[in-house]
Automatic annotation (TrEMBL):
It comes from the Bacteria. The gene is lacI_2. The lineage of its organism: Bacteria, Bacillati, Chloroflexota, Ktedonobacteria, Ktedonobacterales. It comes from Dictyobacter vulcani. This is LacI family transcriptional regulator. One of its GO terms (molecular function) is DNA-binding transcription factor activity. Keywords: DNA-binding, Transcription, Transcription regulation.
Length: 365
């Protein structure tokens, strides 16, 4: 059985003895087409069950109904939740999503150049673009609709959606202070991450306001990975028991998982001997042993709001009918219906208290 070749606009134009431009105008229902030519083209289209390539047609017209999402690998804990928010907004509009997953340890500027040169997307969401930030800035300056989500670098003039890492870390540390803890360690993320520096500053500010001097021995350098959390915990617990901190504020949940593993291996009671608090509220955090107290990052809301902002930049008239569960959330956020390229939206975080944290108990030395 020989498969029939799929017809193109060029084939339709040849059979109808008209130009390719005429076929395109007929398919796009332009009123300027002569009725006789329109009928001739449509007869052939219907006879051959021709289905136009919508993407190709849109590219020919200089526009598409596609938005690109530039994201880290999909096994990063936050990415599925962010993409959930993106899809929740997109599915009620005429637009579709094209996902580009990249390893952020490499420079993908050449790949990004090729993607945008194809003009397949009308705008771009960039999730944690890191080293690509300056490259993206060039495209934004050239007119590309672009929104960044929770970047590794300090936010610039490019529209941005994220959280206040300083205030969130301050709240987490202050919570431990209110529980009576005074020697609070901090395992921070990589220093080249803007969010890690902001969380460090929030931690330090809370201690200073409480009149507690900063102890260099209680500040450890992690890498936002469970293995680095293990390494830092082993350094802390290798010291004399009397020098242990009574609480640890860990810069993200992934590192906190490593800390909990070491505590379990060494039979260190959590929270009786040491309280542990993370940051992110990843899906696994509620199921750790013990369940992890953590700062909740609104990842789904970030994706939802960033998509709303991007589509309002691309097409302020786009049709969007939010589901009821999102209506209250949308009304509580800044208005992005105007084409405001200076938008910087911070979505509130909140503390989720679980059993990995508790009141300070003096140890028997």
């Amino acid at each position: 059985m020989i498969m029939q070749k799929k017809l193109t606009i060029n084939d339709i134009a040849r059979m109808a003895q008209v130009s390719k431009a005429t076929v395109s105008r007929v398919l796009n229902r332009h009123a300027s087409v002569d009725p006789v030519l329109r009928e001739r083209v449509m007869d052939i289209v219907q006879e051959h069950n021709f289905v136009p390539n919508v993407t190709a047609t849109e590219l020919a017209n200089g526009r598409t109904r596609l938005i690109g999402v530039l994201a880290p690998p999909l096994n990063w804990p936050a990415i599925p939740e962010i993409m959930h928010g993106v899809s929740e907004y997109i599915e009620t509009t005429p637009y579709e999503v094209v996902l580009y997953s990249m390893n952020l340890e490499r420079n993908h500027s050449d790949v990004l150049d090729r993607i945008l040169a194809m003009r397949m997307v009308s705008g771009l969401l960039a999730i944690l673009p890191g080293g690509l930030s300056s490259h993206l800035d060039t495209f934004f300056q050239q007119g590309l609709p672009l929104v960044m989500i929770d970047d590794q670098k300090e936010p610039t003039h490019i529209p941005w959606v994220g959280i206040d890492n300083f205030s969130s870390a301050y709240e987490a540390t202050n919570y431990l202070l209110q529980l009576g803890h005074r020697r609070i360690a901090h395992i921070m993320g990589p220093r080249h991450y803007y969010c890690a520096l902001q969380r460090l500053e929030g931690y330090q500010q809370a201690l200073l306001e409480a009149g507690i001097p900063l102890e260099p021995d209680l500040l450890l350098q992690g890498e936002f990975e469970p293995a680095s959390g293990r390494r830092c915990a082993e350094m802390l617990f290798a010291q004399d028991r009397g020098t242990w901190p009574s609480a640890i504020f860990v810069g993200n949940d992934q590192m906190a998982y490593g800390v909990l593993e070491v505590a379990e291996e060494r039979k260190i009671q959590v929270p009786e001997a040491v309280s542990i608090i993370g940051f992110d509220d990843n899906l696994l955090s509620a199921h750790m042993r013990p369940p992890l107290t953590t700062m909740h990052q609104p990842f789904m809301e970030m994706g939802y709001q960033a998509t709303k902002l991007l589509l309002n930049m691309i097409d302020p008239e786009h049709v969007h009918k939010p589901e009821q569960k999102w209506q209250a959330f949308s009304s509580s956020l800044p208005d992005t219906t105007k084409n405001d390229h200076s938008s910087r939206i911070q979505i509130p975080t909140h503390l989720v208290t679980r059993t990995s944290s508790g009141a300070f108990h003096p140890r028997l030395l």
